Amino acid sequence: MDQKIGIIGSGIIASSLAVLTTGHGLESHILVRSQEAKARLMKRFEEHYALLVKKGILTPEGRAVCESYLHVTEHYEDLSECSIFLEAVTEDRTVKISVFEQIAKACPKVKMICSASSAITPDMMLAGQENNEWICRIADRLIIAHPFNPAHIVPYFELCASAWTREGLMEEAVSFLRFLDREPVVLKKPTPGFIGNRLQFALFREAMQLVEEGICDFEDIDRALQYSFCPRYTSIGIFEHMDYAGLDLDAKNCKLLFPILSDRKDAPEVMTSRLNAGKTGTAAGEGFYDWRSRDMEAYAERVNEPFWKFINWKFPTVPDTEQG
Questions:
Q1: Is the pLDDT of residue 71 over 60?
Q2: Coil/strand/helix, residue 321
Q3: What phi and psi, each to the nearest 5 degrees, are found at residue 23?
């Protein structure tokens, strides 16, 4: 593939996307807002590659080849030759629209813009933009391509089109992501949260309900997930599981359990009480757990451990400076 990739953003997702594209030998130009943002981006980018070397997936020489494919800039004009864009800025519709406008103004070769939005559908994104000249120019090339973090380790992407999306673009997006050794799923119609987050938050809601009802502690929930059905779902799917159990039994359990499952519409007290106390999670040192004395490196190892098997692609062997 000879496409040049434009990446917008300097956060966790952007740095991971940069590893994914450069690790596949694609010339990648990433736009940041400042030198401080560039420093944060490069730190994460280099840490990702250092971990691949530590895991024995890459040699130091191979890492240097991959990193040569990255170019960082503060100017949209430097992305003018890019045809595929991966947008990974903050989850703010106004900010994203501004990015799309800048791409439309400065990048005449754009063929596809993939937004990494985790909840905003493309129709929500484009609402009210009918009279925006610059957005109208590129709206037919905009889709949601939501990755899970980190995007170079977790292979799943969920794709969502808008009413504006041109015919054939989703097929091109799927082809592009498969070139990157990803596993894309195309939604038949938009929904906030798409697939992955809707499933996760349904589980989160029920988990918190069990704690609030005094049925168990949150540690018990985590133990149940780690040692019961979650490991099974790393090798089979939920509908495969339902078929195997038998739909007659599944239907009986639906009738028994659905009436008692949580249907709350807002964050529960078991969460808000901790937020009000400043216990926001790992960044604050406390959330549901006390993280102040935990080995965070060991935790990070556990987070990524199930996914290392998916980094099995062929990395580039020729530095970008030797291409062409």
A1: yes
A2: helix
A3: -70, -10
How far is it, in rounded angstroms, from Cα 94 to Cα 266? 25
pLDDT digits (tens, 9 = 90+) for 205-256: 999 999 999 999 999 999 999 999 999 999 999 999 999 999 999 999 999 9
Q: What angle do CA 44, 39, 74 make, to 5 degrees?
A: 115
314: exposed, middle or buried (Cβ count in 10 Å: 0-12, 13-18, 19+) = exposed
Radius of gyration of the chain (CA): 22
- 73's torsion region: left (phi>0), alpha (psi -120 to 50) or beta? beta
* Confidence label for 98 from pLDDT (cuts 50, 70 and 90): very high
Residue whose token pair is 């309900």: 209
d(CA 219, CA 55) in angstroms, rounded, equals 30
> For 70-120, what is the HEC assignment?
EEEECCHHHHCCCCEEEECCCCCHHHHHHHHHHHHHHCCCCCEEEECCCCC
- The pairing of beta strand 142-147 with beta strand 156-160: antiparallel
Which helix (H) or strand (E) is 225 found in, with range? Answer: helix 218-227
With residues binned 3-state (H G I as helix, E B as strand, rest as coil), the percentages for the chain, rounded to 5, are: 50, 10, 40
Write down the number of H helices and E strands in the chain: 13, 8
Reported pTM: 0.92
Average pLDDT over residues 282-302: 94
- Please report the domains of the chain, with CATH numbers, ordered by start residue: 5-191 (3.40.50.720), 196-266 (1.10.1040.10), 277-312 (no CATH)
**What is the pairing mode between strands 84-87 and 5-8?**
parallel
